[in-house]
Amino acid sequence: MAVRAHTSDRSTEGVANVAAQLIRWPDLALKRTRRGLGFRSGGREIVRMPGDHTVELLLTTAVIDRWARVLTDCRRVTPGRDAGWVTMTIEGKADADLFLSLVSVAIKVNQASR
């Protein structure tokens, strides 16, 4: 099943490919919003895909603080606009693989924080 974010005219293939993979994850539920795609885990939004190769992820403040050096060195991951969130640019397979790994972490830490 192909998924396309409803955002701008620029290519969103990176985000669309990642979204197509996340749809198959049993712990995630797809949610379409006026700003793009999102995914929930246990009723909590943990992934936002506003498009244009940009994704947002709820890693939690604790994980961001613990991994600050690694995330900063990555340069693809930046602080998000909301507390506990990071923003990431997906422009290739390596970026997509990193993001999918971080989504796995986000699922676990958000389940543990309930």
Task: Please provide a written account of the structure.
The protein is globular, with a radius of gyration of 13 Å. The chain has a six-stranded antiparallel beta sheet. It has one domain: Alpha-Beta Complex (Aspartate Aminotransferase, domain 1). The N terminus is likely disordered. The chain is 38% helix and 28% strand. The chain starts with 12 loop residues before the first helix and ends with a helix. Helix 1 crosses helix 4. With 114 residues, the chain is α+β, with helices and mostly antiparallel strands. It contains four helices and six strands, in the order H-E-E-E-E-H-H-E-E-H.
Which labels suit this protein?
114 residues; alpha+beta; Aspartate Aminotransferase, domain 1; 6-stranded antiparallel beta sheet; 4 helices; 6 strands; 28% strand; globular; disordered N terminus
> How much is the average pLDDT?
87
Strand order of the largest sheet: 1-2-3-4-6-5
Domain module count? 1
- Can you summarize the main beta sheet? 6 strands, antiparallel
Compute the number of helices.
4
- Oligomeric form of this entry? single chain
Portion of residues in beta strands equals: 25-35%
What is the overall silhouette?
A: globular
Assign the structural class, choosing from mainly alpha, mainly beta, alpha/beta, alpha+beta, or little secondary structure. Answer: alpha+beta
- What is the terminal separation in angstroms? 32 Å
- Which CATH first-tier class would you pick? Alpha Beta
| Computed CA radius of gyration, to the nearest angstrom | 13 Å
Order of helices and strands: HEEEEHHEEH
Number of strands: 6
CATH topology: Aspartate Aminotransferase, domain 1
Estimated helix fraction: 25-40%
CATH architecture identity: Alpha-Beta Complex
List segments where confidence is low: pLDDT < 50 over at least 5 consecutive residues: 1-12
